[in-house]
Amino acid sequence: MQGYQGQVGIDPQASRDASAEFTPYNRESFEQLGVLEVWRKYSDVLTWGKGQTLAVLDDGCDITTPQWQAQLPWGPKVIATGNTVEGGTDPAHRPPGYHGTTVGYPSSVNYEGLRGIAYNNQVAHVRCVTTVHLPGDESATIAEALQWVIDNHQKYNITTVNLAPVDDIAHPAPIETAIDEKLRQLRERHIWVSAPCANNNFTDGISWPACAQDCFAIGAVKPGLHEAYLDRFSNTDLLAVAQATSSSNAYAVGSSMILREAIEKSGFDWQRYGVTIPDAMLAIFQQTGIPVHDPATGCDFRELNLLAAIDLVFGSKLTESAQ
User: pLDDT tens digit string along 6-22?
Assistant: First the structure.
C-alpha cells in the first residue's frame, strides 16, 4: 500500500467565543450540515451522544491534551484506550503518527464551550496503525483493533467506529483483507463503522479501508457549495461538507450517534430501511440528503443533512433543501 505522504487535514477548529454560551467546532460546516438547527430544534429531546461511546481507530492519541482530559457529569470523556501496534493500553503517538489526537474533535469535543456534533458522547482511543497514511499492509493490527471493539462494545456501549486510516490507492471495489470478518461482525452487532475516502482527488476509486465490505465510505463536498471533490467513486456511500474527508467522516460518525438516539427516542420503525440499524441510518441519510451530481465521475451522490434526517425520524416536514 504505497500512499500519499502528506498529512490528512482536519477542518479548522473555531476560536472560543467567550461571550457565547457555546462555540460549534466549525460553524460553517455545522451550518451546512444542519447541525446548528438540530441542536436548537431538538434541544429538549436529544442528548447529543450521552450514553454512547465512539471508538476512534487511528495512529494514536495524546490523551493528556485538555480536550481529552475533560470530565463530563457522567464520567470521563475518554472512557477507554488501547494499542494494537505495540500492545498494551497506551494510545500515544509514536513517530510518524500524528493524526488521531485531533480527528475526534469534530465529532466529540466538549471543552470550555467548544462542541463537536455529538459533544456529550464518550470516546475510546485505539492506536491501530503506525501512521494514518498507511505505508504498507497494516490490516492485521486494524483487525485486532476491530476485535477490541467487538470484545468491549457492550462494556462501554460502543455504538460507532471512526476507522480513520487511508491507503491512498484508488480502489473501485472491495479488496479482501484481514478486517473483513471483523467488519461483518460489527455490522451484525448494529455498530456503525465508516472511513474517509481520502484526499487525492481520485475519481476512479477510493481508499481502503473505506472501500471494504461492511464499512461505509464517506466523501466530501466543498464548504459553501454542494459540489463533490477529493476522492470519490461509485462505491462512495455518503458525502459531508468538509475541507478533508477525515472531517467528513468525523461529521458522519457524530451525526449517526444523534440519529441513533432519535430512532430510539421516537420509536421509529428503522427495519423498513435496513436489516441493521447502521444500514437503516445510512439509507435515511441517503434518502434525506441533498442530491449532488458529480460530472467527473458521472455519479449521483447524497450530501449529509442531519436536520432532514432527524425530521424524518420524528415525522416532521423535511427541510426545503432536502426535498
Answer: 345 677 776 767 666 78
Element spanning 279, H or E: helix 277-288
Which residue is it, cell 434525506?
A: 288
Cell of 195: 472511513
Grid coordinates representing 62 are 495524546
Phi, psi of 311 (to 5 degrees): -60, -40
- Mean of the pLDDT values across residues 183-187? 98
pLDDT, residue 13, reads 77
Distance CA 298, CA 182 (A): 32
Q: For residue 115, give the C-alpha cell.
A: 462542541
- Res. 317 pLDDT band, cuts 50 70 90: very low
Judge whether residue 45 has pLDDT over 90: yes
The DSSP bridge partners found for residue 78 are: 123
Task: Give Cα separations from 178 to 84, 131, 134, 168 (angstroms).
Answer: 14, 18, 15, 18
Cell of 257: 450517534
All structural domains of the chain, each given as residue ranges with its CATH number in brackets, are 23-256 (3.40.50.200)
